[in-house]
Amino acid sequence: MAMRKGLSPVTVTALAGGLAFLYVPLILLVIYSFNDSRLVTVWGGWSTRWYLGLLHNQALMDAAWVSLKVATVAATLATILGTLAALALVRAGAFRGRTLFAGLVYAPLVMPEVITGLALLLLFVAIDFDRGFWTVALAHVTFTMCFVAVIVQSRLLTFDYSLEEAALDLGATPFRAFFSVTLPVILPAVAAGWLLAFTLSLDDLVIANFTAGPGNTTLPMRIYSQVRLGVTPEVNAISTVFIVVITAVVLAASLAMKWQQEKIESR
Amino acid sequence: MALEKRSNFAHLTVAVPFLWLALFFLLPFLIVFKISLSDDAVAQPPYGPVFSLGEGWTVLRDKLAQLDLENYAFVLGDWLYIYSYLQSLLLAALATAILVLVGYPVAYAIARSPRGLRPVLLLLVILPFFTSFLIRVYAWIGILSREGLLNQLLISFGAISQPLEILSTNLAVVIGMVYSYFPFMVLPLYAALERMDDSLLEAAADLGATPSQAFWRVTVPVSAPGIVAGALLCFIPAVGEFVIPDLLGGSDTQMIGRTVWNEFAVNRSWSVSSALAILILLVLLVPILIYQRMQLRELESR
Predict the structure, then answer these.
(1) Nearest alpha-carbon partner for B261 in B86, B58, B101, B84
(2) Residues within 8 A of A (CB atoms), B 282-301 only
(3) Shortest CA distance to B260 belongs to which of B245, B247, B270, B249?
């Protein structure tokens, strides 16, 4: 029955309303980053001066650099650990402690960040690990790996094992079978996991606030301290750069994955 | 032979992430629990007693005897902390309820749209989630403030003559939570609705149900797991939310995530902030366990 399958005026309105709700605040934020006036709420004509100002804001550039380093390291480690965790959940069968393990993988997804941050900080203090680059990176690995695990897990659930079994029967080691058979198929999910871990790490304020040492101020920490002083066109400009870069990367990645998927399906 | 090799590999896939999470997720909570039983001290670290390896049994026993529930008694005896917990639960529940109402039509519309269009619409919903959480919350300051865009718009239309005070109220916090958690609600709802078998609706129609009857008695019950999953995914982190109440809330916004941070960073009481964190966990334990069970069942159902 086409009537139920298609879109009615009500559902189209709901969809348009939902998307407007999501995007209008971001669009306004971007528009006001080009405002010549220092008062954010008064429009003073178009200007790109806040963007030029960003380049001379050394503290901000340093923070962006710290964040990029942390996010790259954290996302890479999290992707390895998260993929292993997904394999354990889907493939390892009923091992002892499986429920506990699953709990440990799923709990960080919903755990309030304040609690995770406090707990990790207290761990680092208890084992006398000085706060710095690595404490933030390790903290980010821990919560982002669980997101990677969920993404890879959903891909593994629809994966046909018979290919890998054939490779094993032909004498391949499990490592070899994994790298030459399984990994290429789940690669889009692994890549999506890396990207999600990277953006989550780049975005995190609360956990970094607890675990970063002096001299390792991340970009969100820097933005946050500026936001606390009020809304300024400069913060709008940083935000716009952030939004544009992330949007471009996510769109490019999803196009690449679509292309990869089509290539696999056409084989 | 193949089986044995495979089981070695399987052991490795279990052991490495398991050890990592045990060290960086489970152990930290045990430490938080221990510190919640300790006292603040003017020392480095600022709590006591501190256990170390190689101490004699009597020293250990003395130190264990120093652990007590004092911090819990302090927290539970103070109306301000209780208020903080209740307010967090209330605001998170309110935001979650609104999210279900707002998210359901959107998820439903995406699930009903032409197959080719769905990935694009989904991407549009997920995309803001990739851009910074902090920035998304910040965007609302410029909209909701006294001189903000919403007030300017309403005044220019003549809808109001005095600007509305929305920023720095609990209303702004709820708006911020609904906005920030929107994709978390839509995705599980969509997953449940998309999997729905259309023949169920046809059967309902054949049996004489009107479309609205079919919706309430077939579609909604079938998508119930998606509603529960989405609600938990929003409610649990929202209870402990820090950034949203901090930036959008006012002086009467005392959500518990902010209280933990203040207790830790401003009052420098590690033991009280640990006790507060453990109490949040106790409150959230049941929802977290339900969420984990749902995830695990999802895993087993395929």
Answers:
(1) B84
(2) 284, 287-289, 291-292, 295-296, 299
(3) B270
Residues of A in contact with B22 (CB under 8 A): 104
Beta carbon pairs, A and B, within 8 Å: 283
The mean of the pLDDT values for chain A is 87
pLDDT value at residue A98: 87
Q: A233-266 and A183-203 helices cross at what angle (nearest 10)?
A: 170
How do the domains of chain A map onto residue ranges? Answer: 59-265
Helix, strand, or coil here: B39? strand
Measured over the CA atoms of residue A153, residue A157, residue A159 and residue A165, the dihedral's sign is positive
B292/A21 touch (CB, cutoff 8 Å), yes or no: no
What is the per-residue pLDDT across B152-187, written as a single tens digit (0 to 9) for each? 888 888 888 888 889 999 999 999 999 999 999 999
Q: What is the mean pLDDT of chain B?
A: 88
**Tokens at residue A201, please?**
């790490």
Contacts of B287 in chain A (CB under 8 A): 110
Does the B77-300 domain belong in CATH 1.10.3720.10?
Answer: yes
Helix extents (H) in chain B? 2-21, 27-36, 57-66, 70-76, 79-112, 118-130, 133-144, 149-156, 170-194, 198-206, 211-214, 220-222, 224-239, 243-248, 256-261, 270-300
Contact B31 A149 (CB under 8 A): no
Q: Which positions in chain A touch B247 (Cβ < 8 Å)?
A: 227-228
Name the CATH topology of A59-265.
MetI-like fold (1.10.3720)
Query: Nearest chain A Cα to B29, which residue?
Result: A119
Partner residue opposite B27 with nearest CB, options A92, A107, A123: A123
Cβ A107–B292 below 8 Å, yes or no? yes
Per residue in A189-227, pLDDT (tens digit) is 899 899 999 999 998 999 999 999 888 899 999 999 988
The pTM of this model reads: 0.90
